Amino acid sequence: MSDASEVQRLAGAKEIADGTHLPHPYPDGFAEEWIGRLPQRYDDGEFVAFAITLAQNGSFVGSIGLGLDQANQRGQLGYWIGLPYWGKGYCTEAARAILRYGFEILRLQRIWAPHFRDNPASGRVLQKIGMKHEGCQRAHIAHSGGFKDLELYGMLRSEFSEAT
What's the domain range around 77? Predict the structure, then answer.
């Protein structure tokens, strides 16, 4: 909960909303509400989330998580990084760590991730961590008054093991 004000500030940037499913404007109290729901969602086996922080000082820079489908042993990877921290490799580092967590700790069979086609930087993160492009869902998401295509990436536990 101590990160709520930074979540509010960083997630509130229009550039973040343009490339994610986060709302813009980011409503007051939304960060506290989201953070407050995380423990129950974790206990229910639905979702696991982590703060992305700087190693040198612990500053909050973004969030990463897995939406869990326990019955099918899969997780949907999602993340966002605050605008001042773009292009520094933090998201790629966090995504590698959550792949390891998902496959080695949660014992998932598959981790997949969508990204908006018009957010190619997110696609580069997925490519860098070794996920394979699996296709495109055209005009799949209503967003910002229109529809956006989703590019889909995935990785199997066996592929992760081979890559490490």
Answer: 4-163
pLDDT of res. 26 = 87
DSSP codes, 128-160: HTTPEEEEEEEEEEEETTEEEEEEEEEEEHHHH
Rg (CA), the chain: 15
Global confidence as pTM:
0.92
Residue 8 has a CB neighbour count (10 Å cut-off) of: 17
* Location of structure tokens 């998932």: 108
Cα–Cα distance between 81 and 84 in angstroms, integer? 8
| Coil vs helix vs strand at 116 | strand
Beta-bridge partners for 142: 147
Strands 132-143 and 74-81 come out as unpaired
The pLDDT, as a whole number, for residue 162 is 66
- For the domain that residue 23 is a member of, what is the CATH number? 3.40.630.30
Residues of the chain falling short of pLDDT 50: none
pLDDT at 164: 54
Q: What is the pLDDT of residues 136-146, one digit of tens each?
A: 999 999 988 89
For residue 78, the tally of other CB atoms under 10 A from its CB is: 19
The answer to whether the CB of 117 falls within 8 A of the CB of 83 is no
